[in-house]
Design brief:
Blueprint: H1 9-12, E1 17-20, E2 29-34, H2 37-40, E3 46-52, E4 57-63, E5 65-67, E6 70-76, E7 83-89, E8 94-95, E9 102-104
Antiparallel strand pairs: 1-2, 2-6, 3-4, 3-7, 5-6, 7-8, 7-9
Length: 108
């Protein structure tokens, strides 16, 4: 029986958050693309906070690279559990999807 995904790219695209590939797989790398609230507000630096599962295991902040279309970073997918994302700028402003974070199921 297939698992119902927490979310996919189309759910967050209006917030400026996408991942590639759209379904992350444990052991592989994904690219996070961000053109959300912080980018649109003129942030010069954005960090992606990443964690896995309900306890945000392996929680790490990744500095994102500014591009012509926003910010991006490539990260390893460390666990076969929910991938959680939120974003902050260097002034400690947050984009956490109104407290819901950005969550994606990870394939084994």
């Amino acid at each position: 029986m297939p698992r119902k995904c927490k979310s996919n790219n189309k759910d967050y695209i209006s917030n400026g958050v996408t991942i590639q590939p759209a379904v992350p797989t444990v052991g592989e790398n994904i690219t996070i693309l961000y053109d959300g609230l912080l980018a649109k507000s003129g942030a010069s630096h954005v960090y992606a906070r990443v964690g896995f599962g309900t306890n945000w295991d392996n929680e790490t902040d990744y500095a994102m690279t500014k591009t012509d279309t926003g910010f991006e970073v490539t990260i390893p997918v460390l666990k076969a559990d929910t991938l959680n994302l939120c974003f902050k700028d260097c002034a400690n402003n947050w984009d956490n999807n109104s407290g819901m974070n950005y969550s994606f199921d990870v394939a084994n």
